[in-house]
Amino acid sequence: MLPDRKSRTFIEPQVVARLAGVPLVSRRPMQGNVSGRHVSPHRGASVEFAEYRKYVPGDDLRRLDWRAYGRSDRYYIKEFEADTNLRCCLVLDASGSMGFGSHGLTKLQYARQIAATMAYLAVQQGDAAGLTCVAEGITQQLPPKRNAAHLSNLFDMLERTEAAGPTRLTAILHELAETVRQRALVVIVSDFFLPSEELRSCFEHLRFRRHDVAAIQLLDPSELDFQFQRPMRFLDMEGGPAIFADPALISQRYHSASTAHLDALRGVVMETGVDYQQVNIAQPHEEILMRFLVGRLRNRGRR
Fold first, then answer.
1. What CATH number belongs to 13-27+85-298?
2. CB 121 within 8 A of CB 203
3. Labelling 120: which of 2, 74, 92, 169 has CA 20 to 30 A away?
4. Where in the sequence of the chain do the CATH 3.40.50.410 domains occur?
5. Spatial separation of the C-alpha atoms in residues 158 and 10, rounded to whole Å
6. What is the DSSP letter of 264?
7. If we measure between CA atoms, which residue out of 199, 152, 210, 212 comes closest to residue 171?
8. Are strands 128-134 and 212-219 parallel, antiparallel or unpaired?
9. How far is 115 from 94, CA to CA, in rounded Å?
10. How far apart are alpha carbons 203 and 279 in whole angstroms?
């Protein structure tokens, strides 16, 4: 059940219901405030055994391993992995280029579907979700919380978000790496029209701060195939000059530059351990999220 009765065009109850059977998990230990389903870097109480350590006065006697004592005549304590809750920090690119869409849906509208559904899934399983919308600066921000009223506020923020202006995504990601104090799952939804080395620096900074980083790159079909047929004016949606060109004359150079950029980005995410998804927004967002959730479940603990 959705948290309020408002009609939200960007979240579909049927899609949420089908995705709810696959948990949203972290690939790295998390630090939360309450017990949950995610591995913590600290020892605590759960069903998964971690290690033995020597008994020290004050330890809980219920955790003594009497079999180990019988074998060694020494007292040992059983330690278990602690389970905790997750903070999911969604970072939404709201710069001008995200307003582009050639098939009835803009990249920003698609990003709303991704962010809203992921936030709902996180809160539904007892985790916290927050949202940061980024253009030339942080346009809107909501810290992670776990309740339904907060989720309604997050949806309201998504409705208010419009695509406009240039992007300073890399600078904001560096800022978030310093200001998000506790380990979190940071999900960045953007078209990533940025220099790959700048993105490498951001990803490395976030990973250095022990965050689990996921990057979802949204691309319009026409940005991928560039099947324009006649001379036209191409507008820079982030404020640069317009260019009048014949697609037949620039198509080869466009594909070469696009391929080089995407290859460089794939290299960066592989080297920095970022969970990367390239998305053609003509695909149903349910398929993308299912692939994302199942992939994280399979790769849990590898990064």
1. 3.40.50.410
2. no
3. 169
4. 13-27+85-298
5. 9
6. H
7. 199
8. unpaired
9. 12
10. 19
Q: Are 257 and 82 in contact (CB under 8 A)?
A: no
Alpha carbon 281 to its chain's center: 17
In tens digits, the chain (303 residues) has pLDDT values of 555 667 788 999 999 999 999 999 988 765 544 434 444 443 444 444 556 677 777 777 777 888 887 888 888 777 654 444 789 999 999 999 999 999 889 999 999 999 999 999 999 998 999 999 999 999 999 999 988 889 999 999 999 999 999 999 999 999 999 999 888 999 999 999 999 999 999 999 999 999 999 999 999 999 999 988 889 898 888 888 888 999 989 999 999 999 999 999 999 999 999 999 999 999 999 999 999 999 998 877 555
Q: Could you give the CA distance from residue 127 to residue 131 in angstroms, rounded to a whole number? A: 14
Report the distance separating Cα 196 and Cα 38, nearest Å.
31
Report the interhelical angle of 107-124 vs 148-160 (nearest 10°): 180
CB distance 252 to 77 below 8 Å: no
CA dihedral in degrees (174, 259, 111, 188; nearest 10)? -20
Write out the two tokens for 269: 């995410």
Evaluate whether 150 touches 142 at the Cβ level (below 8 Å): yes
pTM of the model: 0.81
Tell me the CB-side half-sphere exposure of residue 175, using CA atoms within 13 A. 11
Q: Tokens for 64, please give them.
A: 């003594």
Identify the residue whose tokens are 């290859």.
263
